[in-house]
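Shipment paperwork, digital attachment
Item: protein structure file
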Amino acid sequence: MAAFADLNVPQGPDKKCVQSLLEAAARLGYSTVALNHVIDFKEKKQEIVKPVSPSELFPSLPVVQGTSKRIKVLNRLTLVVSDPSHCNLLRSTSTNIRLYDIIAVFPKTEKLFHIACTTLDVDLVCINVTEKLPFYFRRPPVNVAIDRGIYFELLYTPAIKDSTMRRYTISNAISLMQICKGKNIVMSSAAERPLELRGPYDVANLGLLFGMSESDAKAAVSTNCRATLLHGETRKSACGVVYTVKKPRKVEEEEMTLPACKKAKTQG
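Attachment content:
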């Protein structure tokens, strides 16, 4: 039996509301959830605080439906970036950042999407599903992200809230699927109320509307979530190692064979 996960449960100030969300998720069969702390640099100056242990917030976690195990609760940090300067924080070796189990970035422009896919040390890249995308997805950065083990997150809650957002969600998701072919997709809720949560099989069925195959849609709420968590563990243990994009071997060999004068011209 696959272990299902919802990697985006908003960590609001109301503990009772979050507790209700955890209970609903466990009742629906999710074995793992991630409490999401969002920082939007455009709104106001915000600091990245040290995450609070879920065991301190909720001494008694609910038991997952059909099992005898309690639901596993993780910490996630999502940074909404609208300017390249916002990425500098992710390139630093901030102690508090490294304490989060999952780090996600929500890029607002094509340039920032490219940076997130190719250089930032993150686990998830969030895709906007509430409005028309201001840019088209391009294959090179998406392929680099896939090679680096980074996953793309699609939210399903907007699709069940509003007909306009439903159109945007499906349209933006299909645009992404045409490039990534259903690979490295994670589907999450971002539910603010228990009634907005859907069971993992219902979410997988929504994935079919997004242009995903049946196996890819199921992976988006199970094995891909597990892979994202493993990527986060590797990132945390890397102690500040930043991924870089390596030149193709063919380009390196050509540069090695160029005469010195041609190299100077090429570099100039």
